[in-house]
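Hi Y.,

Following your request, here is the sequence exactly as I used it, all 130 residues.
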Amino acid sequence: MMSFIGIGLANILIKGPFQDPTVNIPETRVIPINRMLPDIPGTRIHVGALIALGVALIAYYVLTRTSFGLRLHVLGANPRAAVHVGIDVRRLIVRGFLISGALIGAAAAADVLGVFGYLRANFNPATATR
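Below is the corresponding structure, written out as tokens. Let me know if you'd prefer a different format.
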């Protein structure tokens, strides 16, 4: 459900304050090339791929080696057991949602900054071209 809210909020912003006044379709201004994520030399892959790899390694470490990851694992395996051992389930769920939302937002920003340079209303990366 939150993804629909996020898409709706993005559409409102794109059709409102972020609208490019020089075009008729609802899209943001094109980001200048010098402000976009640079490509890895010799490839068409931008540095967002390296950033994503680094974030994935950090997430793996956090989920497998920290108390936060253990609490998430216990909550996912058995919420009643999580309550029994004293885990604040509501707070942990909200923290998990906030962290996952931040990661999704960072991935979308890397996609826009590394590949497209602009964002259209009702954006679908499967149909977009460079």
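The radius of gyration is 19 Å.

Thanks again,
Q.
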